[in-house]
UniProtKB/TrEMBL annotation:
The active site is at T200. It comes from the Eukaryota. This is Threonine aspartase 1. Belongs to the Ntn-hydrolase family. Intramolecular proteolysis generates 2 subunits, alpha and beta, which reassemble through a non-covalent association to form the fully active enzyme. GO terms for biological process: protein maturation; proteolysis. The record marks D199, T200 as: Cleavage. GO terms for cellular component: cytosol. Gene3D superfamilies: (Glycosyl)asparaginase (3.60.20.30). One of its GO terms (molecular function) is threonine-type endopeptidase activity. InterPro entries: Ntn_hydrolases_N (IPR029055), Peptidase_T2 (IPR000246), Taspase1 (IPR037464). It comes from Sinocyclocheilus anshuiensis. Keywords: Hydrolase, Protease, Zymogen.
Length: 385
């Protein structure tokens, strides 16, 4: 079930999560020694929520943010100033509303702020006919969150021993790198396989009525410049969710991870969602990752394009379209990445436990130039169950 064109089979797929790399070349690798911890985090995240709905997607994301093994919320990478700044977004496929925060400090679970922005947008205009914001950054985002009842959390409480030691180590390396030539500095970065870079987290979900949603959150690159906003907060780049507007179309939900700048310039989340309207989902995702990402003209100057996606698409089964008594969903959950590895987990409300998997590039494949793709197709019981 593994490989560049491998397919897998699954049952009861309704919700999926992914922990994917958001690191510079040479990183983005889930070591075998940490595989058990990564898979455990994914499994626990799925199992913490019993009701598969739009709430699932941000509750799972919030749980993942609390894990020290992920780069989102608690334990996030520190920026050049030694502070934590997080990005997050969520999109509701039914209303097409979107909420996002960027370079946000002082809030434990940034995705909760994104979710509150989305819900406030659904309430309509503000006083004097003002349009409510859907994307806030920095201090303004923090103030808005606190004013809407989301408690503040000092950076020191979100910083772990692991992230702090990584910051100190990276700072020493930067100081040393400034004293040597550019070539040597680049080689040092390329050969560094450091787990301190950690990961971005994302989630996609479909409920029993066929509504989809997606979310993503990240602490960003280690030693990033203060104020840098990655793909996790950008519309169409970090996540995308869209209900089918016609019975001949698919509902889709996508969440991305990887090099933020690469994902922003290619708008990969929306590109993958659009591609999912093709008949063969596996082939469509393969072509989207190859043509819209690795070989994208927007990344023509890049020789190492790093990214990963989790994709969920669904439609009403053929017999359900003809009978009101049969309300079944055909669901496909796929993932693909150009990084060395990506950890995923998935389950349905009917499953007793989640399934987890660490996907890796095929032997001999070059990260940033090759891709892995896996996933499965299943039919889910009645939508009224």
């Amino acid at each position: 079930e593994r490989g560049e064109t491998g397919k897998g089979k699954g049952e009861g797929l309704r919700g999926g999560i992914g922990i994917g790399p958001n690191c510079p070349p040479g990183a983005g690798y889930h070591s075998e020694s940490k595989a058990k911890e990564y898979k455990h985090v994914c499994k626990r995240a799925c199992q913490r929520v019993s009701c598969i709905s739009q709430k699932f997607v941000f509750k799972v994301d919030a749980y993942l943010q609390d894990s020290p093994f992920t780069n989102a919320g608690t334990g996030s990478n520190l920026n050049l100033s030694g502070e934590i700044e997080c990005d997050a977004s969520i999109m509701d496929g039914k209303s097409l509303n979107y909420g996002a925060v960027g370079a946000l400090s002082g809030i434990k679970n940034p995705v909760l702020v994104a979710r509150r922005l989305l819900s406030e947008t659904q309430k309509g205009k503000l006083s004097a006919g003002r349009i409510p914001p859907c994307f806030l950054v920095g201090k303004g985002a923090e103030q808005w969150a606190i004013s809407h009842g989301i408690p503040a959390c000092p950076t020191e409480k979100m910083t772990t021993k692991f992230s702090l030691s990584g910051y100190k180590r990276n700072k020493r390396k930067m100081e040393l790198a400034e004293q040597v030539e550019t070539k040597r500095k680049r080689q040092s970065c390329e050969h560094e396989n450091n787990s301190a870079c950690l990961d971005t987290v994302g989630a996609v979900v479909v409920d029993r009525e066929g509504n989809v949603a997606a979310a993503v959150s990240s602490g960003g690159l280690a030693m990033k410049h203060p104020g840098r906003v990655g793909q996790a907060a950008h519309y169409g780049c970090g996540c995308w969710a869209e209900n089918a507007r016609d019975i001949s179309l698919y509902s889709t939900a996508v969440s991305t991870s990887g090099s933020g700048e690469h994902l922003i310039r290619t708008m990969l989340a929306r590109e993958c969602s659009t591609a999912m309207q093709a008949e063969n989902a596996h082939q469509a995702l393969l072509e989207a990752m190859q043509n819209k990402f690795i070989s994208s003209p927007f990344l023509a100057g890049e020789d190492c394009v790093l990214g990963g996606v989790i994709v969920l698409r669904c439609c009403t089964c053929g017999e359900a379209q003809r009978s009101e008594d049969i309300q079944a969903l055909l669901v496909e959950f796929l993932w693909s990445h150009t990084t060395e590895s990506m950890c995923v987990g998935y389950m349905s409300a009917q499953d007793s436990k989640a399934r987890t998997h660490i996907s890796r590039l095929p032997p001999g494949a070059v990260a940033g130039q090759s891709l892995a793709i896996e996933g499965g197709v299943c039919r889910l019981g009645t939508m009224s169950d």
